Amino acid sequence: MFTFLVSDVSAETTFTDVNQNNSHYEGIMHLTEKNIINGYTLKDGTKEYRPDKEISRIHTAVLFKRALELPVPKDVKEILKNFKDINSSHDYANEIAATYEAGIFKGSNGYFNDKKPLTREQMASVLVRAFHLDKINNNDKNVKVNLKNVDPSHQANLQILANLEITNQLKDFRPNQMVTRGQFATFLYRTMQVTGDLKDTTIVKVHPINDIVVTKGEKVVLPETVTVTYNNGKNDDVAVKWDTEKFDFTQTGTYELIGKIKGADVTALIVVVVESELEKYKFLEINTNYVSPDNKMTVRINSIDFTEHEGHNSVTINYTEKNDTKDQVITSTGFKIFFKNGNSEPQYGFFNNLYPGQEIDRSYTFKFLKSESPFFIEYADDNFFTDKPLEGSLKWKIAERAEQEVQNEEPKIEEPSKIELLNNEYDRHQKAIGEIKEKKDEYVNSIENKIKQIRRESPVGYYSDYEYEKLIGDLLREMSGLQSKIDLLASDNSYAAQTERKKLEEELSKINSEMEEIQIKRQAQLRIQNLEDMLDKYEKEYKNQIDQEYKLHESNLNKIKNGMNPFD
């Protein structure tokens, strides 16, 4: 029994009837890597492509839908009313409707003729219609091709195939011969090369993506495409699907998202930063005088120092208050620290009067749990009992620890060193990806060889647990019944009894052999299932290793970008 597969297959698919000596090998292999052609799967799990078999119109429609990524029309049932021999229950109803909608197959006298093969001249016309080859054809430079034995309705299209070097059979195209599966693979492959639809899908690099920074409550809009570099050096923008299931962008935080790229093992990485609404405020400079609008006190923060302690962290502010008014007594007011999660803590103490011209230097330390992330300092006359920052207050942002340590320092990495580090990181990354893939190939080949060996050495049964238990139970009951009859005849020495007993023993032996064969098949099946489960488990582990490596790669690139050496 054979099945024409429609589901995606690995680019590693091989066919037992196609080797490098086949004239259509290149086209078949490239289209297989693109998951456009799948072939036939045999009962033992191997695959055949059958390159010499005539290709039917329905299989051609399937290949066109995959190659052109044609969408399934919304009104499939309505479209199929154009064909007398096709309805929505057809196995390939979507493919037929899609190619009809695209103007590739319109049928003949109201019939699609799904199992009917294509002639070579018909193939020329459907290729031109499917890929709009007439739009890229140069009519001013027609190649000399024999059109005498070609039907007039197909002559112009064959001329286009000749002009674009999709065919080299110029003396005799053999227009009325039926197209084989191998020939169609070659023609489709060459056409896609001409139109640029067959791109090199070996992506060696995903370009870094700028972080997305939004304020809490704003919608996060992720890019639909990312820029990649292929192994031929060309860049392109490709579609990406982001894994957002485990992230809640309604909460503040930094989120690293992995993006899957269609048809490639590589992944993209983007960082989404959801900032607190507190980020909207305008923050002031250190060592600069500002007049508080509520009490007219002149305030200057001289330093903000973040310190890590064993059980907590602290922020110490060193500040100056000065009454620059001529005739007003001003009460010293308080500072307040706000954390990124919106929590706050007010200053306690130092609320005394300052007279005109009076100036005082002070410091105050806020202590807090390590789980709190300090954000900014606020100065205001009446903020002790407020939950949120006041709109007219003075505010200074608290620098992160890492930012404080590099303040006023020259970059540690010069531009030439940064370039060298980037090159080293790309080399390391490609080597790591190669080693992960090589290890996977070795493991998969090992498991697949074991499965093949089991199939060669043992017959394999395909039973569910219920089917197997029922089958064995029925055989045991049948054997028990036969054994009981044999036991009853054991004391009867008559010729008839002995003859009957011998017959029953033969039946018993036959059933016993049948049960042993079923058990052997079952054991082979279970061993194969166990090996297949191992492959599934390793596939998940492989994807995780790939994802982790790309995360490390992006992290290292960001470190280099920020002047750090990830190899230290």
List keywords for this structure.
568 residues; alpha+beta; six-stranded mixed beta sheet; four-stranded antiparallel beta sheet; 18% strand; extended
Class from secondary-structure proportions: alpha+beta
Instruction: Name the poorly predicted regions.
Output: 1-13, 401-416
Q: How much beta, percentage-wise? A: 15-25%
Provide mean pLDDT, rounded.
83
Query: H/E element string?
Result: EHEEHHHHHHEEEEEEEEEEEEEEEEHHHH
User: How large is the radius of gyration?
Assistant: 38 Å
Strand ordering within the main sheet: 4-6-7-8-9-5
Q: What proportion of the residues is helical, as a percent range?
A: 25-40%
Oligomer: single chain
Q: Number of DSSP helices? A: 11
Q: Please tally the β strands and state the result.
A: 19
Overall body shape: extended
| CA(first)-CA(last) distance | 60 Å
Tell me about the largest β-sheet.
Answer: 6 strands, mixed
Structure characterization notes:
The chain is α+β, with helices and mostly antiparallel strands and 568 residues long. The chain has 11 helices and 19 strands. The strands form 5 sheets. The protein has a 6-stranded mixed sheet with strand order 4-6-7-8-9-5, with helices on one face. Strands 10-11-12-17 form a 4-stranded antiparallel sheet, with no helix packed on it. The chain is extended, with a radius of gyration of 38 Å.
Give the SSE map.
Blueprint: E1 3-4, H1 25-33, E2 40-41, E3 47-48, H2 57-68, H3 76-79, H4 93-101, H5 120-131, H6 152-163, H7 181-195, E4 203-206, E5 212-215, E6 225-230, E7 235-242, E8 253-261, E9 267-275, E10 290-291, E11 298-308, E12 313-322, E13 330-331, E14 334-339, E15 344-346, E16 353-354, E17 359-368, E18 374-380, E19 394-397, H8 401-405, H9 415-457, H10 465-489, H11 495-561
Parallel strand pairs: 5-9
Antiparallel strand pairs: 1-2, 2-3, 4-6, 6-7, 7-8, 8-9, 10-11, 11-12, 12-17, 13-16, 14-15, 14-18, 18-19
Helix pairs in contact: 1-7, 2-4, 5-6, 9-11, 10-11
